[in-house]
Amino acid sequence: MTQWLEVCDLTEIPQLGARVVNHGDLTIAVFRNADDEVFALEDRCPHKGGPLSQGIVHGRKVTCPLHGWNVELISGCAVAPDVGCAREFPVKLEAGRVWLDCTTGVCAAA
Amino acid sequence: MDMTPPDKKMKLVMVGNGMAGVRALEELLKLAPDMYDVTVFGAEPHPNYNRILLSPVLAGEQTVDDIVLNPLDWYSENNITLHVGKKVVKIDRTHREVETSDGMRVGYDRLLLATGSNPFILPVPGADLPGVISFRDIADVDAMVLASSQYQHAVVIGGGLLGLEAANGLMKRGMQVSVVHIGPWLMERQLDEPAARLLQKSLEEKGMKFLLQKQTAELVRGESGRVCAIKFKDGDSAPADLVVMAVGIRPNTELAESSGLHCNRGVVVNDTMQTFDPRIYSVGECAAHRGIAYGLVAPLFEQAKVAANHLAQHGISRYQGSVTSTKLKVTGIDLFSAGDFMGGEGTESILYSDPIGGVYKKLVIRDNKLVGGVMYGDTVDGAWYFSLLRDGKNVNELRDHLMFGQDHCGNLGHSGINKAASMTDDMEVCGCNGVCKGDIVKAIREKGLFTLEDVRKHTKASSSCGSCTGLVEQILAVTAGGDYSATPKTKSMCGCTEHTHEEVRAAIRQNKLLTIPQVQQFMEWDTPNGCASCRTALNYYLISTWPGEAEDDPQSRFINERAHANIQKDGTYSVIPRMWGGNTTPSELRRIATVAEKYNIPTVHVTGGQRIDLLGVKKEDLPKVWADLDMPSGHAYGKALRTVKTCVGSEWCRFGTQNSTQMGIDLEKAFFKMWAPHKVKLAVSGCPRNCAEVAIKDVGIIGVDSGWEIYVAGNGGIKTEVAQFLIKVKTEAEVMEYSGAFLQLYREEGRYLDRTVHYVERVGLDYVKKKILDDHEGRRALYERLMFALSVEKDPWVERAKEGKFAQEFAALTV
User: Fold this and answer.
1) Mean predicted confidence (pLDDT) in B138-148
2) Interface with B, mutate which of A12, A20, A79, A82 (most B CBs under 10 A)
3) In chain B, where are the structural domains located?
4) Would the pLDDT of A37 be above 50?
5) Are B6-117+251-311 and B132-247 in the same CATH fold?
6) What architecture does CATH give domain B562-791?
7) Does B559 touch chain A (CB under 8 A)?
């Protein structure tokens, strides 16, 4: 069952940037791109667990700060030829507020 | 997602199923997988294979299956209709249809001509006899292999690259081979005479015979109806059961010409690979671009990329011609040639000749630039010379050592290994990413890789520090065969744009562009907001060109420069406060100790730059740590001024001649907060004993009794480079001005991520001397521009710790 949690105002996430959201033991990166789309991934690069929230956001991708893997924000999957996926969480924007569902994260690789 | 209904897809027909054409399809599928219904016609009954590797197949070193690049499954998986063994004989441009020899008609919206080339057949009597073939495709190889099992005498006409490879293969198959050549020496398009003589000698030792300066008059018919001998114009003759004509190739323009397309030694195309009919494109050996029809794979792949870009209607790339190099694929023979290897008026040549050892090298230089070269017997530096040539680098500084290769050019570091061919598969090539030779070879073979970029993407080899780039290029050359590397003469900033670093910087300056979106719009960037590599470069170019006016964009900074601390592998950060000139005080040390305990900082480390590193700091603690430390930012995380290392100099040392500590502190305080294309390290020693190790710094100062010596462009990193002497000055003020002017020149002209050593290597020390030593006003202006740029910079730690700026960056949210 979807359980929407209110995270913050869209303006609290920098454009082409991210915020770290803690939920229990989970660390989730919530991204905002140039078109004000929001995305949520577990804050772990599929390569060596680097914090994706600290990467550079471009288009619908983020570049991991540790070794430069590019990860698709929509699916959490690494851009080819790299292989692997970060868990992706439902996220939505309503009236300028960002909502996140931490219960149903999916990993496209599974 | 493609919303076009299936029946509305455009139709793309490709004539020719060879390497260049299929590469164009591959590139097109990457860009616009659903735009076209694709139909391919191939005259040969095979899927696309690697024509370059026909020689190893002939020599029995590889099989036909080994060299297939796109198996039949690939075509069906990508919904490409493939017709093999069908020849297109007509293009009906009015109705936009192609017609095959058996009457099949297929319509097109776009047509791609990739018909390749045909071998040139000498118009002599007997040229059509059985047993007379060329060396162009799998059928020719099959014919040669068959002949070698039945006959003894083979004659190869043509002592060029292809002819020698054919002759070598036939000899390996057990035939007695004579090579007939009209020129005075072999491979005259790639070799000068001395190199060709060495090659000839070595092939003769293997058993090959040569008939030079012989012109073929006739091929004689034997009793069986098959060729039996070759006759020359001078009356001589030789037995021949098999004749291979390898006297050159001609672009295959028959189809294009018959359909009225403009051809001139190839199908004439513009920089977008479009022919004179805008619906028809052409790539590969059949295409003539700016008067040249290329016959090597790398330029053809570049063409393929450009054509695909335009077929996908992106409309943003141009092919601007290529520089090419050649390697002969005869096992046991090392030969390399590139550019203008003959030399002539206005050029100088450097020669190395060891006839007994079988080594010959010639480098041709014009206007201090390498313009060509030929190497025989020892080609390990081929890739290096080729990159010098391609990039048009000024080689004046290297001249003394140039002939002895890259290893002898002051390089003591990691890139010293230089023998790709002799390496075993389990030897490590890329120390950063742990990639062995075997991994690279496997990826090249299985994935059909041809460029350095592809190898980097798939294996990560040479994608980090880049010091093994030359080695990877060599492995690529050995594995993929022949020519591979020729990347464009000018490198674009990244995949997001065609423009070079210099073009982008000039546009920023001339048009007063102040934001990244402005630059991307003005320069017509291909991607909506760039990538991690161009955005960081653009941000630097903007703030360094328009200090105080262009606003720093934290989202276009690498995390270290956004968080002003160094990210570690576990996501924590390291903090290095600045200690001016390596001096500290008991009070500072006490604060550091208190901070380390208060924030449970696990590791306290003394760095090589005379400072103290606190490792394992949580991101949210950073502003508090900085506030408690109450010390300036050390910028150890940035492309910025790092340390100024000093010795204790004349204040304490019994040998010290100058107060190097104070000089270092003054320099560090003056240049504090300086952003640069890459990190910048300085050092000041108080006497020639050089305890501060100035020889490996970007700017190194040595105090001597009569003043200060200034050295520039040293490097202690991946490649150890010794700093070069710039000038000796008398006063501290002069040290400041000359050092500052040099750093500002580097800030203004260095490409992002180039260290000073790379910048000086590119422009030459003479140029730097002209700007800094000869032009007094220019030097002062440079220094003033640096001082102005620094005047508007603030200490980022103070801003964040005390003024509360960018608080969001350090605070996590909780739900």
Assistant:
1) 95
2) A20
3) 6-117+251-311, 132-247, 501-557, 562-791
4) yes
5) yes
6) 2-Layer Sandwich (3.30)
7) yes
Secondary structure percentages of chain B, helix, strand, coil, to 5? 35, 20, 40
**Res B341: pLDDT:** 87
- Whether residue A23 and residue B559 make contact (CB cut-off 8 A), yes or no, is no
Other CB atoms within 10 A of residue B803 CB: 10
- Of B555, B563, B808, which is closest to A57 when you measure between CB atoms? B555
Q: Is the pLDDT of residue B1 over 60?
A: no
- Domain B132-247 sits in which CATH superfamily? FAD/NAD(P)-binding domain (3.50.50.60)
Q: Is B6-117+251-311 assigned to CATH 1.20.1250.20? A: no
Query: What HEC string does B288-342 produce?
Result: EECCECCCCHHHHHHHHHHHHHHHCCCCCCCCCCCCCEEECCCCCCCEEEEECCC
Residue B531 distance to chain A (closest CA, Å): 6
- Give the whole-number percent of chain B exceeding pLDDT 70: 95
Check if the beta carbon of residue B476 is closer than 8 Å to that of residue B485: yes
Please name the residue ranges forming H helices in A1-110: none
Helix pair angle (B161-172, B138-150), 10° resolution: 40
DSSP string, B717-748: SSS-B--EEEEEESSHHHHHHHHHHHHHHHHH
Residue B410: per-residue pLDDT: 46
Which H or E run includes B707?
Answer: strand B707-712
Quick check: helix, strand or coil at residue B75? helix
Which residue from A minimizes the CA distance to B30?
A80
